[in-house]
Amino acid sequence: MAQLAAFYERMFFIRRFEETLLDLFSLGKLVGTTHTYIGQEANAVGLIDHLDPDRDVIFSNHRCHGHYLAFTDDAFGLLCEVMGKAPGVCGGKGGSQHLCKGNFYSNGVLGSIVPVATGIALAEKKKGTGAVSTVFLGDGTLGEGVTYESLNMASLWQLPVLFVVENNHYAQSTPVELELAGSIAARGAAFGVETAELDTTDVDLIHSAAGQAISRIRETSAPYFLVLNTYRFSPHSKSDDQRDPAEIEERRTRDPLLIAGARLADDERSAIEARCEDRLAEIVEAADAAPAAAPEAA
Ligand SMILES: Cc1ncc(C[n+]2csc(CCOP(=O)(O)OP(=O)(O)O)c2C)c(N)n1
Ligand SMILES: [Mg+2]
Question: What are the pocket residues of ligand 1 if the criterion is a CB atom closer than 6 Å to any ligand atom?
Fold first, then answer.
């Protein structure tokens, strides 16, 4: 129960952090656009619970806030970064998609992170650190050929890399059926990589499947391909949404917060939510008051 409460708190905080980002965007307080992870939180929270921020390495993409918060819990640094403020993770110069802190890296160029995560897995293997290199990619990113070169080398060289495909069924506005032929899971299996696929928004089930995947990598140092079927409630980025509203409503019945929240007592859930709201309010106030990023040196 303590674990479920902790998962709920992390997911709820990520959800409210991003809803707040959308509000701040509307007020003109963000620098650049933002891609929210609203609806997909159980993936980041369930999986990243198994990783050690001091040893393991994560590579994320344009939709990186949930992964970042689950790995670092650095909400102030992230908010300042997205607001173009000096205390941001990257001094307010990287923005929403380009975060670098400790063993966390994200990049908005689709596919670019996959060979880098594979190369880091090779480096960590050679150093004998026991680290797992995890890379999160979307269904649409499976259109990037470098993904398959990476899977091939990871399998040939038995590299400790976890490929996580978050299939939210859309690449921008293109449904997955119009972007990808064949099966997603078969793409990993075709390279002889151990593969698992989940179709759930239940954080406990994701936690358990991710635990098995990460234990396998730690035991064998071989790669693993994990497909998480999921859904985002928010638009791709800002206001670019052509999905049927009825489809979104139907998926809301499987909101990961509803599923996990229903297992908690009402008073415990309310206390968690109040704690998150207080923390968020403090962070927003501090980030708003923080100085803007320093201009480039001449
Ligand atoms: C190389 C490259 N091409 C195009 C884009 C523009 N772009 C940003 S996100 C996106 C769709 C990505 O879809 P998916 O991989 O399924 O991730 P999701 O947005 O669904 O999380 C596109 C085409 C980009 N960032 N990089
Ligand atoms: Mg997608």
Answer: 62-63, 108-110, 138-141, 168, 170-172, 236
